[in-house]
Amino acid sequence: MSKNKVLGKSATVPKSPKGFKFDLIKNSNKKLPYSIRLSVSEFTSICPVTMQPDFGFLIIDYIPKNWLVESKSFKIYIHSYRNYGIFHEEAVMKIGLDLFKSIKPIWFRIAGYFAPRGGIPIDVFWQSSKKPTNLAIPELRNFERKLFNR
Q1: Quick count: other Cβ atoms within 10 Å of Cβ 90?
Q2: In CA terms, which of 20, 62, 76, 121 is 20 to 30 Å from 9?
Q3: What pLDDT digit, counting tens, does each position of 82-94 carry?
Q4: Which residues are annotated as catalytic?
């Protein structure tokens, strides 16, 4: 296990996600292929132009290799976006790339579904490579219809 900075300790939420270091947990099941899903149902950030809040739902799926992200540090990282000015597309890509670079998984996918602004919903998707077919990874299909009454 990596040296934990937040697990079991009181932690302060940073004002920005810049430079955040995730706590990692050693994958004790790395010989068994399996997938992990992280769902963030109340993601919020600030529009950098209007300074109005933006609301989204994030889904992150990954197949771990050597490391897992520790959930409390992930929660603090996500919460650091609360008052941070960033566009939807940039937020999803930053979260995806920050996590991908930290845990170095076999495969990784992030989907961000945002509440409509001006009547236009913005959904952002990125994955590291072709989706593996040899293990259970839940689909994202039609997921956006269940969100924000679309």
Answers
A1: 13
A2: 62
A3: 999 999 999 999 9
A4: 47, 54
pTM: 0.89
Residue 114's CATH number: 3.30.1130.10
Structural tokens at position 7: 């697990």
Question: How far, in Å, CA of 112 to CA of 110, rounded?
Answer: 7
Is residue 44 packed enough to be buried (19+ CB in 10 Å), middle (13-18) or exposed (0-12)? middle
Average pLDDT, the chain: 90
Instruction: Give per-residue pLDDT as tens, 24-79.
Output: 999 999 999 999 999 999 999 999 999 999 999 999 999 999 999 999 999 999 99
Cα 42 off chain centre by: 12
Contacts 24+ apart (CB under 8 A), 135-143: 135/33, 135/34, 135/35, 135/63, 136/35, 137/35, 137/61, 137/63, 137/109, 138/35, 138/37, 138/61, 140/59, 140/109, 140/111, 143/59, 143/111, 143/113
The C-alpha atoms of residue 119 and residue 13 are separated, in whole angstroms, by: 32
Maximum Cα interatomic distance, the chain, rounded to a whole number of Å: 48
- The boundaries of the domain holding residue 74 are 36-146
Q: Say if 59 falls within a structural domain.
A: yes
